[in-house]
Design a protein that fits this description.
about 375 residues; alpha+beta; Archaeosine Trna-guanine Transglycosylase, Chain: A, domain 4; Methane Monooxygenase Hydroxylase, Chain G, domain 1; Four Helix Bundle (Hemerythrin (Met), subunit A); five-stranded mixed beta barrel; 10 helices
């Protein structure tokens, strides 16, 4: 990761988060902002845009503006007939963090840092890109918003940076949610977060009957609790045995993957079971969450199930919940416990069933 610093005119903006690669028109009326635009136009057309915490504040102070924003290029600037306001068209270039902000000559200037990540091709990046593009396709089939469809259809071959930001800019998220995504500088981490958000949005759009909706929420709960029980485990935890004839955590994890292979078959009326060998911990986790996502994706189609949903719950799903509890207990016995949590207030959402889960809201 390389860090670069530069000093630019700065403009606080209201009720919008500008992402890199995003074209946004808006009207500038605040005197200090007009001065900032004029200074940028007189130089290299670059300006630093950062969202206000409260759009109702006319003259925000530096602490009332988010510290992470976007360096943008002013594509077009047009004085409006009223002689006061300016209409500008900007294109986001790159995200940046303000190191210091000062007001001089009637406008704001910010010293900002930008961060360049060297993206290495590999299985993780390829899997994330495939996951996000696949979910975009499913999202487009469910949404009727032509603006979103036009913007998102152009991302099939996008680089990770552009893929994550283009999707984030076009999803129906709150300003706070978009700001949180803007503040993630690592492209792979941002892609993973976008993949989870897409799952949640797909879950909102797909009509479900009460039984399937409850089953999907149970699966999302399993993913949330399972991810917490698995992440951060030391390397030797996978082989820990509490007794000579007990299963190791790696063997339990392999069995959990087998349960959802079975559940996936049950959805189509196939009663097939196979036992898998224990895998390396990270590989076992990846396999478990991959089949969990496949199972949830099958439920999300709304297609008829090959057996009653209640049977699927009482068999593989309930069994997997039990095994998550086992992993939590073994973490404590092995001397590597994790913090307890009030799961009642946890951010668990239908469709978010991968290893990337929301941060805990109340741990103890």
């Amino acid at each position: 990761m390389a860090i670069d610093a530069k000093c630019l005119p700065m403009m606080p903006i209201r009720e919008v988060v500008v992402f890199p690669f995003m074209m946004v028109p808006f009207v500038v009326g605040r005197e200090s902002s007009i001065r900032a635009v004029e200074e940028a136009m007189a130089a290299d057309r670059k300006i630093f845009l950062a969202a206000q915490h409260d759009a109702a504040v006319d003259e925000p102070k530096p602490g009332e503006v988010f510290g992470v924003g976007t360096i943008a290029n002013i594509v077009q600037s047009l004085k409006l007939p009223d002689g006061k306001n300016i209409k500008v068209l900007v294109e986001g270039v790159e995200r940046a963090r303000a190191v210091s902000v000062s007001k001089e000559n009637g406008y704001w200037r910010a010293t900002v840092e930008t961060f360049s990540y060297r993206m290495e091709e590999g299985a993780q990046a390829a899997a994330l890109i495939a996951r996000v593009t696949g979910r975009v396709v499913r999202y487009l089939k469910l949404t009727e918003n032509p603006q979103h469809q036009h913007a998102l259809q152009a991302i099939a071959t996008a680089e990770p940076d552009k893929l994550a930001d283009t999707v984030a800019a076009n999803l129906p998220l709150t300003m706070e949610e978009k700001q949180a995504l803007l503040e993630i500088f690592d492209p792979l981490e941002r892609l993973a977060r976008v993949a989870g958000i897409l799952s949640v949005e797909i879950g909102k759009l797909k009509p479900m009957d009460d039984t399937l909706d409850m089953l999907r929420h149970t699966v999302a709960t399993l993913a949330y609790r399972g991810a917490k029980a698995m992440r951060g485990a030391p390397a030797d935890f996978a082989g820990y045995r509490s007794a000579p004839d007990s299963r190791t955590p790696a063997e339990i994890l392999a069995h959990m993957g087998d349960l959802f292979d079975w559940a996936l078959g049950l959805c189509d009326g196939r009663h097939e079971w196979h036992d898998s060998q224990a895998l390396a911990w990270e590989v076992g986790m990846a396999r478990f969450f991959a089949v969990l996502e496949a199972f949830d994706r099958r439920l999300s189609t709304g297609a008829p199930l090959g057996c009653p949903a209640e049977r699927i719950f009482q068999g593989p799903v309930a069994d997997a919940l039990t095994h998550v509890g086992q992993l939590a207990m073994l973490r404590r016995m092995a001397g590597c416990p994790f913090r307890g949590e009030n799961y009642f207030v946890a951010e668990i959402a239908v469709g978010r069933v991968g290893a990337d889960q929301a941060a805990p809201r109340k741990e103890f």
